[in-house]
Design brief:
Layout: H1 11-28, H2 34-38, E1 43-47, E2 50-54, E3 58-67, E4 70-71, E5 76-81, E6 90-95, E7 97-103, E8 106-110, E9 116-122, E10 127-134, E11 145-153, E12 156-158, E13 163-166, E14 171-178, E15 190-195, E16 202-204, E17 213-217, E18 223-230, E19 236-245, E20 251-262, E21 266-271, E22 275-277, E23 281-290, E24 296-304, E25 309-314, E26 319-321, E27 328-336, E28 341-350, E29 354-363, E30 369-379, E31 382-388, E32 392-394, E33 398-408, E34 413-421, E35 426-432, E36 436-438, E37 441-449, E38 454-463, E39 467-476, E40 482-492, E41 496-501, E42 505-507, E43 511-520, E44 526-534, E45 539-545, E46 549-551, E47 554-562, E48 567-576, E49 580-591, E50 598-606, E51 610-615, E52 619-621, E53 625-634, E54 640-648, E55 653-659, E56 663-665, E57 668-676, E58 681-690, E59 694-703, E60 710-720, E61 725-731, E62 736-737, E63 741-750, E64 756-757, E65 760-764, E66 769-774, E67 779-781, E68 787-791, E69 795-796, E70 801-810, E71 819-830, E72 833-846
Length: about 850
């Protein structure tokens, strides 16, 4: 095996070695030189600190002694081999100033003028040699010694030497590892191969990454192999470093070899135009020649077209492949003899502007490659733009601009884009063809324009603001060509003003007029002027001058064109069918007039109203008179004129008088009141006499001129024909003596307007009297003698009367009295009077 395992020093061996070193060091301290004392060393190094060697080979280790001022010469260095039980190797030679080999494990050497001292080791079997380089002149115990190790392996590599190869071929290489002891192969040893340069570009076959490094392992024959190839056939050489590795990846042995690549020499040349127009064709002539020392076989020519050139055709069997942006044209040229050549041609079209680099390459079966390039500049076409449109339009109207884009120059213009910038005072309406809008920009994609080819579009804008507006358009191509044009349009504006006047008040159901005036105070004609009046609810169109068109509540007039500073007047006649405030609005509009002015006239529609009221007695007696009051009140919201009050007298009543005096005509009496303010009232009186019994209806009417308003009221009057009864009672003597008779006469008469029925007279007799007789048998005396009742048979006619007499005797006076005052009461009741009527007669009774 190539790697060995270190053994740990036994404690006893370390102690013995330490004792020996102390005695040796003590014995040699007197060897220090003057130079070392003048420049005491400060550090010691050992190189290599770790090394691998084949057994039986010699390995030299070098110690370097240094001070702050540089290398220390003639300084003492002691080489000590650490003799643990498994250690191998001996010191066979030392080098420097005054070297002394004390034993195979210990030597003393002074450094030479470069500050170096060396020891050469050898081992006959595998294992490790631990080496200590000790500098006694260094006072710092932490810095006066360094350590190294030599790993001795029984397996030495044999590296391949420099080689030559044909370009385009592969080169296999092998490192063999054989045992020194018996010459047998060593299997499983890793060898790392590294290409240390990249000119020409080469790689290891099947190597990972970029292929510059690969690792192989020795087989049963002790061989580790790698195969070198070129990335592209090219003359030159590559250096390969070879490293034999330990199992943990450390380098044990290394060597280099140089690979020299040889090849025939191919040369490719190409010629073509320096400039062409965009989308025009160019022809390229290509020649491949062999300037080498042997023929090139299976030669293939490839042309890689740049993105800016598009394949059209090729001669001599050229075939195109690849995507449109990376087209490759290939020719199989076969064998090209020494000093021979092959020529082909290629036609391509310029599709992208700018310098286009075409790549031409040839490769042969021998792996040789050569390439060249040509540069052709593809020139774009130019653009020219014109724009036309109306020089003057009215605000609110539309204007259409025609834009024409023309290709110029020798090449095509691709990706042509047209951008029309709408000015502030205008807004986009439409375009033909359809466009794309972004903010104020209207854009069109026109595609490709060849020289002298043109394309036109239209853009329709609406004039929104007055002023001079410049509409600019710019055309650009994908190649950077640009052209601009502009058109200026003066936008004028008719400025309409509208007024509307009418009455502040008007009567319901009466016609009245509004006057509408439209004036143009702007700087442009108001064309297509229209006036629209929307009547409010409760108002209807009657007529107008000029005539308008009524549709529902809307009346429209088409006034045509109104020149600047001119005006038109409309008279509108309407009628209100309901009361209240009515706001009547009119709107004027015209082409270019974006303000749409409006005016409103408000009219309060008055609704006249009148009421009449008659007050007075609702009952009267035949032959009696009564006075009645008639009151007319203005209950509307309009003053009244021509107000009259009329009272129609029914049959059964007779007109007697009025205040103020009214005008009597037949059965009616009329008063002319005149004007009556809103809320005002006026009253008159009339005196009537009842002529006959019954119930009559008296009608009163009030009317006014405004709106023909009137009101009627009635009053039912009951005419009564009532009797007027009287009753009297008289005595024939007064005073009377006790025991004396006296006559009391009761008389009843009808002085009213009708007969009396159910007539009864009741006479109350005082206790001081006693009835002795009555003059009429219709009179009856009650059982206790205190009441005499007379009931009249039938009725008592108008102006009729009757009487009867009661004779009474004065009773004796109580003892001790000389007189008694008595009252006799007669009470009359009849059907036509709800209350009894009584009368008294006083009589004095005196002592006889």
């Amino acid at each position: 095996m190539l790697s060995t395992k270190r053994l740990v020093w036994p404690v006893i061996g370390l102690i013995i070695l330490a004792i020996g070193l102390i005695s040796i060091t003590t014995a040699t301290n007197s060897v220090d030189s003057v130079t070392e004392q003048d420049h005491p060393p400060t550090s010691v190094t050992l190189a290599p600190a770790e090394a691998w060697s084949c057994i039986k080979d010699q390995r030299e280790l070098t110690a370097l002694l240094s001070a702050d001022s540089g290398a220390v010469d003639n300084g003492r260095v002691e080489f000590i081999l650490n003799r643990f039980p498994a250690a191998v190797g001996d010191i066979v030679a030392v080098g420097g100033s005054g070297p002394t080999k004390m034993t195979n494990a210990f030597a003393i050497v002074n450094t030479d003028d470069e500050g170096k001292a060396s020891a050469t080791l050898v081992a006959t079997r595998p294992g490790d040699t631990d080496v200590t380089a000790f500098a006694p002149g260094i006072q710092d115990a932490a810095a006066h010694k360094v350590f190294g190790v030599v790993h001795w392996v029984d397996g030495c590599p044999t590296f391949p030497g420099d080689a030559e190869n044909q370009v385009g071929t592969v080169h296999p290489m092998s490192v063999s590892v054989l045992k020194v002891s018996d010459g047998s192969p060593v299997q499983g040893v890793s060898v790392r191969w590294t290409i240390t340069d990249d000119d020409p570009d080469a790689r290891f076959v099947n190597a990972p990454g970029d292929g510059n490094v690969t690792v192989s392992t020795t087989n049963a024959s002790g061989m580790a192999s790698a195969t070198l190839e070129q990335a592209a056939a090219s003359i030159g050489n590559n250096t390969v470093r070879m490293e034999v590795l330990t199992k943990d990846g450390k380098t044990m042995f290394t060597d280099t070899m140089v690979k020299d690549w040889r090849s025939p020499v191919l040369d490719v040349t190409a010629t073509g135009p320096e400039t062409i127009g965009l989308l025009t064709d160019a022809t390229y002539d290509i020649t491949v020649s062999n300037d080498g020392d042997f023929r090139a076989t299976n030669s293939v020519l490839t042309v890689r077209l740049p993105a800016g050139l598009k394949y059209v055709s090729a001669t001599d069997g050229g075939a195109v492949s690849g995507p449109a942006t990376a087209q490759v044209v290939t020719w199989n040229l076969g064998t090209i003899e020494v000093d021979g050549s092959e020529s082909v041609s290629l036609t391509a079209q310029g599709v992208t502007t700018g310098a286009q680099m075409g790549n031409y390459a040839v490769v042969s079966a021998e792996g040789l490659r050569d390439s060249t390039t040509t540069e052709t500049t593809v020139l774009p076409g130019g653009l020219e733009v014109t724009k036309t449109g109306s020089a003057e339009v009215a605000i609110g109207s539309q204007v259409t601009y025609t834009i024409e884009v023309t290709g110029t120059g020798t090449g095509a213009s691709t990706g042509v884009r047209l951008v029309d910038t709408v000015p502030t005072g205008m807004s986009f309406v439409s375009s033909n063809p359809a466009s794309t809008r972004s903010g104020s920009e209207v854009s069109f994609s026109l595609g490709t324009l060849n020289p002298d080819e043109d394309s036109s579009v239209t853009v329709t804008l609406q004039a929104d603001q007055t002023g001079s507006w410049t509409n600019q358009v710019t055309a650009t191509s994908a190649e950077g060509a640009t052209a601009s044009a502009e058109a200026t349009t003066q936008v004028v504006q008719p400025v309409l003003a509208v007024t509307k006047t009418g009455p502040a008040t008007a009567l319901i159901n009466a016609d009245f007029d509004y006057t509408i005036t439209v004036t143009n105070s702007g700087d442009g004609d108001a064309t297509g002027t229209t006036v629209v009046d929307t009547l409010p609810t409760g108002m209807t169109y009657v007529s107008s001058e000029p005539s308008g068109t009524a549709a529902g509540s809307t009346v429209t007039w088409n006034l045509g064109t109104i020149a600047p500073a001119a005006s038109e007047t409309i008279t509108l006649t309407v009628r209100a069918t309901e009361g209240g405030a009515k706001a009547n609005t009119v709107i004027a509009s015209s082409g270019g007039n974006i303000l749409r002015p409006e005016a409103t006239a408000s009219t309060n529609i008055l609704v006249p109203g009148i009421t009449v009221e008659k007050t007075g007695r609702s009952a009267m007696f035949v032959g009696n008179q009564a006075t009645y009051t008639l009151t007319a009140t203005n209950t509307g919201d309009a003053p009244l004129t021509g107000v009259t009050i009329t009272d129609t007298i029914p049959s059964g009543l007779t007109y007697e008088a009025s205040s103020p005096a009214g005008t009597e005509s037949g059965s009616t009496v009329t008063w002319d009141i005149g004007s009556l303010a809103v809320g005002g009232e006026s009253s008159v009186t009339i005196t009537l006499e009842a002529d006959q019994e019954g119930t009559v209806t008296n009608t009163a009417t009030a009317s006014a001129t405004e709106g023909g308003v009137s009101d009627t009221t009635t009053l039912d009057i009951r005419v009564l024909a009532a009797p007027g009864a009287t009753i009297q009672i008289t005595d024939s003597a007064d005073p009377v003596s006790e025991g004396e008779e006296v006559d009391f006469t009761v008389a009843v008469s009808n002085q009213g307007r009708s007969a009396m029925t159910g007539v009864t007279v009741s006479v109350s007799i005082p206790t001081a009297m006693t009835v002795t007789s009555t003059s009429d048998d219709q009179a009856t005396v009650s059982a206790n003698g205190r009441t005499v009742t007379f009931e009249l048979d039938g009725s008592l006619a108008l102006d009729a009367s009757f009487s009867f007499t009661i004779t009474m005797e004065a009773n004796s006076l109580p003892a001790g009295q000389i007189r008694v005052d008595t009252v006799t009461t007669a009470t009359l009741s009849y059907d036509q009077f709800s209350e009894p009527v009584s009368i008294d007669q006083g009589t004095t009774v005196i002592e006889a």
